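Exercise 7. Given the encoded structure of a 130-residue chain, write a plausible sequence.
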């Protein structure tokens, strides 16, 4: 994921929780988000995320699906229970009918294929966090 600040980025600075067990992807995405002015807290697993009830300042959760321990949908469900007005983006290279059904059953959860470029992901963030 290339990191650069595009002049056409228009959304406000956000506090974002980013959970992904792939260090290179996690740090690359975090750097790109920070370059666009966002505050990003990164975690390598769902279990590493601090208490979800105390994260009232978070504007967005971005999480991977397949991780050791709890998967991203399970994390998203727990997060949504404490923060029902905060959007969640599930980013994953994995696809299956089961995953599609789990995402479709949650109208507050958005799926983004990991192969998406940063511009595509940023557009989705902008749409969700206006």
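Solution.
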């Amino acid at each position: 994921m290339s990191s650069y600040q595009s002049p056409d980025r228009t959304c406000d600075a956000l506090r974002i929780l980013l959970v992904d067990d792939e260090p290179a992807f996690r740090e690359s995405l975090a750097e790109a988000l920070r370059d666009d002015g966002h505050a990003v807290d990164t975690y390598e697993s769902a279990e590493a995320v601090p208490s979800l009830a105390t994260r009232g300042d978070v504007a967005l959760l971005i999480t991977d699906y397949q991780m050791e321990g709890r998967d991203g949908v399970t994390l998203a469900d727990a997060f949504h229970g404490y923060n029902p007005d905060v959007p969640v983006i599930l980013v994953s290279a994995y696809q299956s009918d089961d995953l599609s059904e789990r995402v479709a059953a949650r109208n507050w959860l958005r799926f983004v294929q990991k192969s998406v470029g940063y511009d595509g992901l940023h557009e989705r963030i902008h749409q969700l966090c206006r």
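Remark. The chain has one domain: 15-128. Students should compare their own answers with the one above.
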